[in-house]
Amino acid sequence: MRKPCCDKQDTNKGAWSKQEDQKLIDYIRKHGEGCWRTLPQAAGLLRCGKSCRLRWINYLRPDLKRGNFAEDEEDLIIKLHALLGNRWSLIAGRLPGRTDNEVKNYWNSHLRRKLLNMGIDPNNHRLNHSLPRPVHQNPENSTSTASTSSLMKNDTNNQLVRSQQRRDNDQVSDAGSCLEDEAPGAPCGSTLPDLNLDLSMSFPSSSSLGINKDEDKEKKLNIDPNLSQQELVPSSAATLVLFQ
DNA sequence: AATCACTACAACCGCAAGCGA
DNA sequence: ATCGCTTGCGGTTGTAGTGAT
Question: What global pTM score does this model have?
Fold first, then answer.
């Protein structure tokens, strides 16, 4: 039987208070990110270590960007999701100042719906004929250089999808990358014809992320870590154009 | 003004990987 | 090799805020 991560009856749950935040910030400033399990007691917090870690990583860390996602960031998330599936921490690692939780939330609340609205199955990034067709079916644009971000500015069409979103949510989790979905040897481009997926990736700044694990994963994924962040940021022409 | 429906996002939970003993 | 502990990840839930009716 697994031991609970903390003594539940002695810990606070729910939203963090300003005082709790301050205690955590003060402690980590003084001692750094150490053993999360012992941190709460040492910092005088009635929280479990997991909760402290999450609060710090997702909310209190000083290098967090916060605020709206830029179009470049949206496009990058979509590309990376097509490539990596729901590996949010890896995706977030390519977005300086963004957390996996933030990226995941943004995907589920914005980007997923956006793709659905374009008639793209967000699980596999392929055109789904049972879904609403995209609104921009101008053949001249079908090699579209328009970014997905700019395509769906009009959110009114999303209403139907929104109500469907919750019902769909239990189907989300099998989102695999196209790499996994493809038959062995079949290039990603066979279903993402115009997706100029440069798989080269750079390391995020070591100050902001758990680098070592990312490095390991990148090795497993054969991702070249030596190239700059810029090389991953999609050109507008490289934006997902999934219609054939 | 009250109620309902929906969104956005913070936070929690369970699981599995990683690591040292 | 295995066991137990810690950490990190991804899925899910809870709820405050907002707009529609």
Answer: 0.70
